[in-house]
Amino acid sequence: MTVRLEPMTPAAFDAYAARASLAYGDELAAAGVLPPAEAREKAGTDFSSLLPQGLDTPGHDLWTAYADDEVVGLLWIWQTPESTGPYLHVCDIEVVPGRRGQGYGRALMEAAERVARERGAASIGLQVFGNNAVARALYDSLGYAVVRAQMKKQL
C-alpha cells in the first residue's frame, strides 16, 4: 500500500493546527509529563515555536496523504543538519479515524523514509510517548530503535 502526498493547503493546515495542539496537550498529560492545564499551554507554545511561519516555515514540510482521491492522513517532517549528516525528523503522522488499523500509518512512515532518502538524509527519527503502544509497535516493526529514553516515577 502506498499513499500519495500533496502539500497541505492553508485551510487544511488551519484545521490541523487547531486539533494537533489539543491532541499533543492531551498526549503530554496522558503520558504524565505535565498536569492537563500545563500540558495544553506547553503544546500550544511548542507548536507555535516549531512552525512560526506556518506552512512557510523553512525546513518543515506538511502533506495531506491520499489513497486514490480519499484523504487518509497527514505527514509532517522537519529536516535539520546534524554532525553525522542530514537528519529528517517525523514531527507527526496522523491517520484519519475511520482508516486506522488498515496500514496507512505504515504507508505514511514508508513515504517519510522515501522523502528522507531522496533528500540524502543519513537518518530518520521521531519521538513517541511510552504509553503509545500502537505507534511504538509500528515503529519497532519498521526497524526504529530507541536511542534515548526519559523515565519518570510518580511519588
UniProtKB/TrEMBL annotation:
Protein name: N-acetyltransferase domain-containing protein
Keyword field: Acyltransferase, Transferase
UniProt source species: Pilimelia terevasa
GO molecular function: acyltransferase activity, transferring groups other than amino-acyl groups
SUPFAM superfamilies, per the entry: Acyl-CoA N-acyltransferases (Nat)
PROSITE patterns for this protein: GNAT
Leader sequence segment: none
Domain N-acetyltransferase residues, every copy: 3-155
Coiled-coil positions: none
